[in-house]
Amino acid sequence: MDPQELANLAHLRRARDLIDREYARPLDVPTMAQRALMSPAHFSRRFRAAYGETPYSYLMTRRIERAMTLLRAGMSVTDACMTVGCTSLGSFSSRFTEIVGETPSAYRGREHDAVTAMPACVAKVQTRPSRNAPAATGAPAPSPAPDIENVPSRIREAGRTAAA
Questions:
Q1: Which candidate, 138, 125, 117, places its Cα nearest to that of 68?
Q2: I need a surface site. Which of 37, 97, 128, 153 has the fewest CB within 10 A?
Q3: Cα 101 to the chain's mean position, in Å?
């Protein structure tokens, strides 16, 4: 890695730290890019390449993570939404459901005893939302393809004939 790439990563880290610290403030890509000493378009491309998601997506994931903590503590969904810096309850609920896999009200309503029993450093890692994780929507998992060898012989023979 050359010195310029290291400098770019340091600037990106400054912008990411801004997001982590100031998540409740109104932040936009130009403000974040200014912190990284880059143009907004260049910043967005470099941020995505370095961290695997867009700056706005990272910001919303951090906001949802903080909202999860507030909801576990018993705060109302509307108050949690406004506290973390979201201005639209509908957009917040949609994004929360997309990332966490359940609505904010459902998340708030269920038991979180396991999280309260964990040390804070472990709870932070275990409860961190991830866009790459499959959503727990409650829908049944798709059934696997049937194993052709376990199907009755008439059907198996018809499948072999059709395949030939």
A1: 125
A2: 153
A3: 10
Instruction: Give the number of other Cβ atoms within 10 Å of residue 15's Cβ.
Output: 25
Sequence-separated contacts (24+) of 81-89 with Cβ below 8 Å: 83/24, 84/23, 84/24, 85/23, 85/24, 85/25, 85/26, 85/27
Instruction: Spell out the residues 6+ positions from residue 136 whose beta carbon is closer than 8 angstroms to its own.
Output: 100, 101, 102
The answer to whether the CB of 47 falls within 8 A of the CB of 11 is no
Residue 136: both structure tokens together:
């727990």
pLDDT, one tens digit for every residue, the chain (164 residues): 788 889 999 999 999 999 999 999 999 999 999 999 999 999 999 999 999 999 999 999 999 999 999 999 999 999 999 999 999 999 999 999 999 999 999 999 988 777 777 787 887 777 777 665 544 444 434 444 444 444 444 444 544 555 55
